[in-house]
UniProtKB/TrEMBL annotation:
This is subtilisin. Coiled coil: none annotated. It catalyses: Hydrolysis of proteins with broad specificity for peptide bonds, and a preference for a large uncharged residue in P1. Hydrolyzes peptide amides. Belongs to the peptidase S8 family. The lineage of its organism: Eukaryota, Sar, Stramenopiles, Ochrophyta, Bacillariophyta.
Length: 166
């Protein structure tokens, strides 16, 4: 509903602009898909080995917008649900979708709960970032059985004080 959209955001005008505004999505995609052992930059977790064998194919889906009012990106749960349902539809059409990354705070709303269950029923691994405010608050996705909730650790593999938990 555009009545609830901050006027400086683009949430009322869906478009094909892939800009993620603060580069967070691009950073995460790079961490996931960077080629391993090629001597360039970092070794991704699913990018393939030395470029000789293909790694993951990333499907970028925009689930938020930039808000000048709040000074950063805002994820809309209805857009996230729409993206998850799109991926479930791809699976139903025969595409292999193994995992999705949700590095954003979440609430139960906008059809997100049903979309999550659609993906879990199709054996998709959903990885969710716990958050960085040091609170016992993993967000909605962090409370869903079957979702992998990831928090930060320090150099001694202990929970980082800024990482959310729960």
């Amino acid at each position: 509903n555009c009545d609830f959209c901050p006027t400086e955001g683009d949430c009322c005008n869906p478009d094909n602009d892939p800009d993620d505004y603060n580069s967070h999505g691009t950073h995460i995609a790079g961490t996931i898909g960077a080629i391993t052992n090629n001597g360039i930059g970092i070794a991704g977790i699913a990018g393939g080995w030395s470029g000789s064998k293909g790694g993951v194919k990333i499907v970028p889906l925009k689930v938020g917008y930039h808000s000048k009012r709040f000074g950063g990106g805002i994820v809309r749960m209805d857009w996230a649900a729409q993206a998850m349902n799109y991926l479930a539809d791809l699976i139903d059409d025969g595409y292999n979708v193994a995992a999705i990354n949700c590095s954003w705070g979440s609430t139960e709303g906008g059809g997100l709960a049903a979309a999550v269950q659609r993906l879990l029923a199709r054996d998709v691994t959903i990885v969710h970032a716990a958050g960085n405010s040091g609170k016992d608050n993993p967000g909605f996705l962090g409370t869903v059985e079957g979702v992998v909730n990831v928090g930060a650790t320090d150099t001694r593999a202990r929970g980082a004080p800024f990482s959310n938990y729960g």
